[in-house]
Amino acid sequence: MNCQTCGAVIPNGAAHCPNCGAVVMTQQTPQYQQFYGTPQSPYPQPQYQQPYAGQQGVPQNVDMSDLNIVLKIVCLLFPIVGIILYFVWKSSAPNKAKSAIMFAGIGFLVNFILAIL
Q1: pLDDT exceeds cutoff 70 at 28
Q2: Number of Cβ within a 10 Å radius of residue 1
Q3: Interval 39-51: pLDDT, tens
Q4: What is the 3-state composition of the chain as percent helix, strand, coil, each rounded to the nearest 5?
Q5: Which of 49, 91, 98, 99 would you call most buried, defined as having the most Cβ atoms within 10 angstroms of its Cβ?
Q6: Hey, which bits of the chain come out as E strands?
Q7: What does the alpha-carbon distance between residue 7 and residue 94 come to, in Å, rounded to a whole number?
Q8: Which residues of 73-92 are buried (b: 16+ CB within 10 A; e: fewer)?
Q9: CA triple 12-18-21, angle to 5 deg
Q10: Backbone angles phi, psi at 27, to 5 degrees
């Protein structure tokens, strides 16, 4: 082994270089690396952290307002309208889309129960 500082030959097991006195850094290899080699990842590790609002990848122009009462009643009486509004608003206005599909589902259940009676 050679000294990192002066390049002189250092005997095995020495803690300091006999020429310049520099501390010898020995690199210990674990036992498993002697038999199996250096562990390597076959693919990059996935990123588990989700982007938050304000970070790149999240649209800034998202409408967070709720559905007005007239549209809630329309979705309740005509569930197909609520389903259509859900698919129209699910990325641009998620709160409105959630309310539309919720009232469409309630309207569907009420219509189904009334049809049975």
Answers
A1: no
A2: 12
A3: 555 656 566 655 5
A4: 40, 5, 55
A5: 99
A6: none
A7: 66
A8: ebbbeebebbbebbeebeee
A9: 115
A10: -105, 110
Q: How far from the centroid of its chain's Cα atoms is residue 39's Cα? A: 26
To the nearest whole number, what is the mean pLDDT of the chain?
A: 77
3-class SS of residue 94 = helix
Which residue type occupies 112?
F
Q: State residue 32 phi and psi, 5-degree precision.
A: -65, -30
Are 101 and 83 spatial neighbours (Cβ–Cβ below 8 Å)? yes
Whether 12 shows a pLDDT value over 70: the answer reads: yes
pTM tops 0.70, yes or no: no
* pLDDT value of position 100: 93
Q: Which residue has the tokens 């000294």?
A: 3
Mean pLDDT, residues 26-50: 55
